[in-house]
Amino acid sequence: MEPWDVAIVGGGILGTSVSYWVGNQYKGRIAVIEKEPDVAIHTSRRNTGVVHRPFYLDPVKRRVFARSSQTAYGMWKSYASARRLPWAPVTTLEVGTRPEDVKRVEKYYHWGLENGMGEDELEVLDPDGIRKIEPHVRGYGAIWSKTDTAVDYRAFTKSLRTDAEAEGVKFLTGFEVESIKTTGQSVEIFPKNGGEAVRTRFMINCAGGSSLRIAHMQGVGTEYCDLNFRGEYWEVGKEWTYLASRNIYTVAQHPELPFLDPHWIVRADGRREIGPNAVPVAGPYTYSGFFTNPGQALRKVLEQPVANKLALLYNRDFLELAGEEWLSSISKGEMAKRAQEFIPELKVEYLVKPGIAGVRAQVIDRQGNFLKEAIEFEGPMSYHITNYNSPGATGSPAFTAYLVKRLGEGGHFDHLSRTSAKGNGLWDFETVSQKISNA
Ligand SMILES: Cc1cc2nc3c(=O)[nH]c(=O)nc-3n(C[C@H](O)[C@H](O)[C@H](O)COP(=O)(O)OP(=O)(O)OC[C@H]3O[C@@H](n4cnc5c(N)ncnc54)[C@H](O)[C@@H]3O)c2cc1C
């Protein structure tokens, strides 16, 4: 069979958005390879569903994610309205639970403005100000981000799949990539259960929790390893949803590992959830237990490069966490206790059933540091995006326009001709990608 011009591995929100922009900008045979029967079965569905505004992102250290989130906000807003998808502007209160957090809250206000948010979108509150808008919430101070919105990222991804298909992209579902071989002219991608290989002239790896493993298959990113953490949530019973009507986050106590701090989430359908417990697990799809089989845990420990994991033993934040909080926090009671720091009336009995659990694949460098931004590697006839973590779903339509623009400028699509497509008519490729590259 003729090789595909571009094959994208992974039909999460990242791969689906990439495929939309490639199809929108280039004429050619473009495919998305996805192991599941549909898009957004993993992290792009199993997340907290917040369109995060970038007030909490350092404008320098987290520049790309901050700019992507800022740019994508208006894109998602117009998209949800045009496609009649859930859009619930519940807003977010980020609360300081310790006196020293007040300084951080003020910093967030300035970061928000530096990242392009308007003064009318942010407000710093003192303890009385918090009580006035959320009578059951306590804190030494808070920042109120007035445009954070609850959405359904699975619905966004499925709709983007339809848009990508309208641009000629084909979705090859049920194809799990097992191995990859590069020949002179193309990349050959072999499925797990036998069957015909897919050949492509250029591969883009957007395989989420498996993206680093796939990069390693092509001999790139070998200086990094990853660890998987399952974020578990508990649903609050209907009788107690009145405790807060906004998302309530807390100023990170472990800035190096901010995904561990507890929060109260308001879902697009009105449900409230508390989480996360960050449970170390042996694989990216381990949604219950610690591993799917004992061999998996051993393989994860021995997975190369082992030195990065050993270096973790010198990471102070990680050790503090492992020692003080982690092991004790893997219980519903502990989770309720952590949430009582900002909602004192919350009781463990109010957490009535497990909410959705999602797994984050966290990349670690040789020094044992947890990396915060996405990492990109160029491989033979391929490009790899890994560590695409929160707020990745928020930023995806903007980040991917910027990515496709850079790949085009780097000559990776020279075998394709440009379209004059305007696409879904809501987003303009040049405007969006420039907003990020000019920042
Ligand atoms: C608990 C949690 C809460 C979060 N909350 C938010 C939030 O509120 N807001 C926000 O902006 N971000 C949030 N995030 C982050 C966000 O969900 C992710 O950044 C985003 O979903 C990543 O998308 P992805 O396409 O890279 O990954 P995925 O959605 O995991 O997609 C990767 C795809 O690759 C496929 N794949 C993997 N291996 C193979 C293979 N070998 N062959 C073929 N296909 C393969 C998988 O089946 C999958 O469909 C959260 C993350 C977590 C874990």
How would you explain this protein's 3D organization?
With 439 residues, the chain is α+β, with helices and mostly antiparallel strands. 48% of the residues are buried. The longest helix has 21 residues, at 63-83. It has helices spanning 13-25, 63-83, 101-114, 127-133, 153-166, 211-217, 294-302, 306-311, 316-329, 332-340, 392-409, 429-437; strands at residues 6-9, 26-27, 30-34, 50-51, 92-96, 122-125, 141-145, 149-150, 170-173, 177-182, 187-191, 198-200, 203-205, 225-236, 247-250, 263-266, 272-281, 351-354, 358-364, 375-379, 382-386, 417-418. The protein contains twelve helices and 22 strands. Bound molecules: flavin-adenine dinucleotide.
C-alpha termini separation:
43 Å
Please name the CATH architecture of the largest domain.
3-Layer(bba) Sandwich
What does the largest sheet look like? 6 strands, mixed
Strand arrangement, largest sheet? 9-3-1-13-21-20
| CATH top-level class of the largest domain | Alpha Beta
Strand segment count: 22
The fraction of residues assigned to DSSP E strands is 15-25%
Shape: globular
Mean pLDDT: 92
And the CATH topology of the largest domain? FAD/NAD(P)-binding domain
Bound small molecules, deduplicated = flavin-adenine dinucleotide
Radius of gyration: 22 Å
